[in-house]
Structure formats: structure tokens, C-alpha cells
Write a structure and sequence with these properties.
The protein has about 170 residues and is of the alpha/beta class. About 40% of the residues lie in helices and about 20% in strands. The strands form two sheets. Strands 1, 2, 3, 4, 5 and 6 form a six-stranded mixed sheet that branches. It has a two-stranded antiparallel sheet with strand order 7-8. The radius of gyration is 17 Å and the shape is elongated. Bound molecules: flavin mononucleotide.
Amino acid sequence: MVIVYRSNTGFTKQYAEMLGKAEKMKVYSLTQAGELDQGTEVFFMGPLMAGHITGVDQAVKRFQVKGVCGVGMSPASQQVLDTLSKANYVPGAPIFYLQGGWAPKKVGWIKRRMVNMVTRSMRQALREKGSRRTPQEQKQLDFLEKGGSFVAFEHLSPIRTWMQEQQPQK
Ligand SMILES: Cc1cc2nc3c(=O)[nH]c(=O)nc-3n(C[C@H](O)[C@H](O)[C@H](O)COP(=O)(O)O)c2cc1C
């Protein structure tokens, strides 16, 4: 199995490279993956856009997708994972979620506006708290307004465990 990823602002690429290094697996961007044989077994990773994992449809058409991971800006939770699984069903492949980051300066204005519309009420509520914001809430507000990264190696644990379970059947 190899890792194939799609990334617009770099967070998914960081996770894919970290995972590849840790699990000693080859890593290809979706473009580079053109050189792979059709039907190659892949673990696909892509950024979330309006709940959809970008690139997963292309990956499913070309490869044998054994596992999928969506990378988004919201904190990981069971609810996020459930919603993700419903909207991005790949037969026989488990789905994972990783919190990446938000890089408003690296996306075009239309996309920035789309995200800002979704996070508007949250930003407004946090701003209205003023000096009553907890340090955690301040961090969240800075993240939504200016961007930031939550990429962390530890988040890869569930994926690494699953990958290690796959090995005996290789
Ligand atoms: C137009 C647009 C829509 C997005 N929709 C979602 C979303 O539905 N859920 C989410 O958690 N993050 C969403 N994001 C945030 C990205 O998924 C997040 O920044 C991700 O880490 C980007 O990964 P990348 O750097 O590999 O491109 C959206 C971003 C953009 C620009």
C-alpha cells in the first residue's frame, strides 16, 4: 500500500509525509500518482471542502482505496467523523479524520469568504465575550481570524495502528 494525497494549502501534505516516514511507505501527490499502476492499493488523504474529501473520487476511480482520511479545520470529534463517513463513503475502506489548519492567505477570496461565512457566528460570539474569553477561546478566535496549524504527529496514532493491522495480509 502507498499513500496518495491531495493538498491545497499544505496541511494534508505535511500529514502524508509524516505518515509515510513513520510507516516507511511511499508518498505520492495525486498528480505524481499518475505513474502508479491502475488498481494500486492506496491510503488516500485529502482536504475537506464543504464536507467533501477533495480528490477522493479520482482516487477511487484509479486505485484500490483501502483507507481514506479527510483533513479539515475543525477539532476532531465523533460527530465530525460520523458526518464525514456519511458524505464520503468508500466501500470497504475505513475513514479517518485529522485536524489540519486554516491558511486564509493561501486560498482565493471566494473560498476565504465561503469559510468566513461558515465560521461567522462562532467568531462573533467569541469576539463579543471580550475580556471574558478564556485563553482557549482566544486561541480559537486567533485561529479563525488569522489562521494557524493543528498538525501534530500524535494525531496519526489511530491511522498508524490500523496500518500496522493491515500488514500481515500484505
Ligand atoms: C472552500 C473551503 C471549504 C472548507 N470546508 C471545510 C469543511 O467542510 N470542514 C472542515 O473541517 N474544514 C473545511 N475547510 C478547511 C480545510 O479543509 C483545511 O484548511 C485543511 O486543513 C486544508 O488542507 P490542505 O492544507 O491540505 O489543503 C474548508 C476550506 C476551504 C477553503
